[in-house]
Design a protein that fits this description.
- Helix content is 81%, strand content 0%.
- The chain is mainly α.
- α1 packs antiparallel against α2.
- The protein is elongated.
Length: 97
């Protein structure tokens, strides 16, 4: 799996490098403003691809553990409530018969 990830990263890096170099060469070598937006779009697109999303911060292991524990506790509480309701329903049915 790590071997495949290394190849994917290498391919992404190579593609990004080629596009960035191409766009920068075209921007520095041309005086024509007509195509500048295309090359700037290529540069910003590649940079946006590599930059992390500001709202997608990585959680720490402690936060992940706390979240997992709270989800487990919620599941246990829900199961206990359902079991209590089932027991109460059985008791009511038994009393009415």
């Amino acid at each position: 799996m790590k071997y495949q990830d290394a190849w994917r990263f290498s391919a992404q890096f190579l593609f990004s490098f080629i596009v960035l170099v191409f766009c920068l060469c075209k921007l520095s070598g041309t005086a024509d403003d007509r195509d500048n937006a295309l090359y700037w779009g290529g540069i910003t697109g590649i940079l946006a691809w590599w930059m992390p999303s500001p709202g997608n911060g990585q959680r720490t292991m402690q936060e992940e553990r706390e979240n997992s524990i709270s989800l487990s506790n919620a599941t246990i509480e829900k199961t206990q409530i359902q079991a209590t309701q089932t027991t109460n329903d059985r008791a009511i049915r038994t009393n009415t018969n």
